[in-house]
Every structure is written in structure tokens, then in C-alpha cells.
Amino acid sequence: MYNYKKFIFALVALTSLSFGQFSQGTKTVDGELAIYAHEGDNITVIELSLGQFLADSWLVEGGISYMDIDSVDSDTSFELSASYFMNDRVYAGLGMFLPEEGEEELFVNLGMLSPFMMSESVYLNPSIEYHTESEVFTLGLGLKFFFE
Fold it and tell me: Which of 46, 57, 73, 131 could form a disulfide with 69 if both were Cys (CB 3.0 to 4.6 A apart)?
């Protein structure tokens, strides 16, 4: 039982060290692939974004996304967002999609970072997102790379 407690303590200590690197000036590259169905359509979304921490807990990102609907219709849109990191792992964000055609759309999201393959700079980024205009929830899984 004593070894079990030491293992838990070591695991928590290592985890907190690995997440303690996000500070002002840290940059990020984020990519995501999402596949979902909406009103009978199969939709594939590919996103790429770049960001920077303006303060220790505030990340601002800009990106581009490509959406394909049943290989018949496609759309490219730009994205601006800001995320607040409640701790070094969990964040909440607010952003706006700016499509080439149509109206812009606000979204809110909640995500949690998890180290990918024991890396100190690459994280799995599962998230849930709600689009306010279309009233659609999406679940996504991406990779986020942090660097100075």
C-alpha cells in the first residue's frame, strides 16, 4: 500500500510539472479533424490554427477550416478565438467563425489537454463545442503543439 501512495504522488507531481509551461509568449499550433453527421449529411472538417499566450492564462488563436459536406459542397472559413486556461489542463473558449459566404457564427468550447506519447510539448486536445447560430454541438479530438 505504501508503494501505491508513492506512485500516485510521483504521477501527480510529474503531471503538474509537464503542464506548468504555458506562460506569456508561448506559441501554439493546433490541428483537428472532425467527422460528424448533421440532418442526414456526413460532414468532414479539417482545421489548422496558430496562437499565442498574451498572458499566463489567456490564449488568442486565429485559424482556417475546411468543411466538406457529402463530397458535394465545401466551404472555407476563418476563425478567431480566445481561451482562458482555468488551470494548466482545462480551458474554456469563445470564438467566431467568419465564412467566405454566409453569416459569421459564434461558438463556445470546453477542452482538456493531455500529454501525447509522454511529450512535453505535444498534447491531445479533446473538446466539445457549441455553435450558437446553428445550435450544433461538436466533439473533436486534435493535437496541440506548444513552443517558445
Answer: 73
Which residue type is seen at 96? Answer: M
- Residues 78-105: pLDDT tens digits? 999 999 999 888 999 999 999 888 889 9
Handedness of CA 74, 78, 80, 85 (dihedral sign): positive
Identity of the highest mean pLDDT range in 30-39, 40-49, 51-60, 114-123: 51-60
Residues 68 and 43 sit within 8 Å (Cβ to Cβ): yes
SS3 content of the chain, % helix, strand, coil (to 5): 10, 65, 25
- DSSP letters, 57-111, are TEEEEEEEEEEEETTTEEEEEEEEEEEEESSSSEEEEEEEEEESSS--EEEEEEE
- The residues, ordered by sequence, that sit 6+ positions from 11 with a Cβ below 8 Å of its Cβ are none
The one-letter code for the residue type at 44 is T
